[in-house]
Amino acid sequence: MKARAxxxxxxxxxxxxxLAIVVLLFPFVxxxxxxxxxxxxxxxxxxxxxxxxxWENYRNVIERNNFLQYTKNSMIVALAATMIGMVLGLPAAYxxxxxxxxxxSLWILISRIIPYITFLxxxxxLFTRLRLVGSFTALIVSHLIxxxxxxxxxxxxxxxxxxxxxxxxxxxxxSSRAGAFVxxxxxxxxxxxxxxxxxxxxxxxxxxxxxxxxxxxxxKTVPVAVFNFLSYGSQDYGxxxxxxxxxxxxxxxxxxxxxxxIVKGLTAxxxxx
Amino acid sequence: MTSAPTHTRGQPRPGGGFSSWLxxxxxxxxxxxxxxxxxxxxxxxxVFNLILSTQxxxxxxxxxxxxxxxxxxxxxxxxxxxWNATWLMMxxxxxxxxxxxxxxxxxxxxxxxxxxxQGLVRAAVLLPMISTPVAVALIxxxxxxxNLGVLNYFLQTLGLERSLxxxxxxxxxxxxxxxxxxxxxxxxxxILLAGLQTMPDDPFEAARIDGASSWQAFRYITWxxxxxxxxAALTIRLIDALKTFDIIEVMTQGGPGSASETLNVYAYxxxxxxxxxxxxxxxxxxxLVVVAAVAIGVNLLRRRV
Lengths: 273, 305
Hints:
Chain B: Keywords: Cell membrane, Membrane, Transmembrane, Transmembrane helix, Transport. Chain B: Pfam families: BPD_transp_1. The complex is a heterodimer. By secondary structure, chain A is mostly helical. Chain A is 76% helix and 0% strand. Chain B is built from 13 helices and two strands; from the N terminus they run ααββααααααααααα. In chain B, helix 8 packs across helix 10 (214-242). At the A-B interface, helix 1, helix 4, helix 5, helix 6 and helix 7 of A face helix 1, helix 2, helix 4, helix 5 and helix 6 of B.
């Protein structure tokens, strides 16, 4: 359906859209402003809109709270859970797309419907028994519940778009099916793989509950670190805002790189952490 | 499974035995690892959770566990906190989801036009839903602070009463639902936008020639054609709203009192603060039943319509 609006009749919709964008973006703008204000400005009775920015809050969060260590932990978990999810999930997604196997969709549906905490309670008992609570292994394995179905679900659509002639030509030329998959098909679905990978990393990065329960002092991820920092009764508004900016920044940068495909990925998966 | 891929059966292929074996069995070899991992991470824990729900046990192995049958479930049914939690979960969902469906539809219609600044618009729509829930919760908690929060400043500027937001037991669930609406209206809009953009032009041309008003065109053409996208968005949002955890736990921890303690949050507190494993497993089973019933219900409705 194509839009056919004349310039005059689009004034009201444009204003409404502008209002929607202001509402959607305001919390981010406010968060950045608070992170750059002093404690006095942040606790003023009337909000301060014009001020000289200070980096004090960022310095506080990064230096006092081991923030870089937690960022590193989050990256290790997100990268590992995404890489393993790719290695396992891409062949599965290809197989589902090519041979119309729908059996796997059942599990993907289950992982979509069931509240994470239902998996988490048994996994917590199991990892306790195995003395793995607090290890990266526990975090990475549990994050596979997020990354693996997401990667499979998103890439199926991309594999389905590849015409079968290409791999058939490769098979005629004497390539094996696995060889054709790696050399012919995977390069063709690069946009899908990148989209799925980045979304998987974002949702793993955002994940709070698994990391809260299964993480330990040495494997604490950023969301958990910031939550703890808050629940110890911090009244340092600027630092809280700075911490919120620091969690959000990496995923914004990451999502901008695949902006073109990310809508397709998000609406195909429709998955949230 | 042949372990030594040295001899080939059937027609020989370049690449040797393992390669031709793989070629013949790729249909199930490729998905197998994923099936095994997902089975171990989802089905097994689910079964284990069901078993746990029939037991009285603590996280610690030092205390003996005992079989109590459906005891945990009967206990839940006579637990006022369970009913309170179930009701709050429903209330949160019933406020948040209709609001975001309605606003999402409006936003989708607004976005379904040619416009300048596409990049900015897309970024604005994407940001809320890719943001870390903990960061979202923090910033909204600061904005909803009764004394210093900028939302009360806006209310006052508009000549309205200041509000206690999260500190008011009557308002805490609507306030949390507001955050959910802010974060997930864009997803509803994107799903509906995808539905709008795949619609054929012909029925609209025909309607225009027949002199239909734009409301009639929406009511009799757009709306029916949009049903699949509407149900997809509704299913996703209902399921996720019922399961909401991060935002609530970070912003209120279920408080004030237990005024925002939804079933998810209540189960988390009994399980990981009070370490009552069996009872928690029963609560989670009941939560699962509700979520599954809603998911199935929406799908039955979809077939009716």
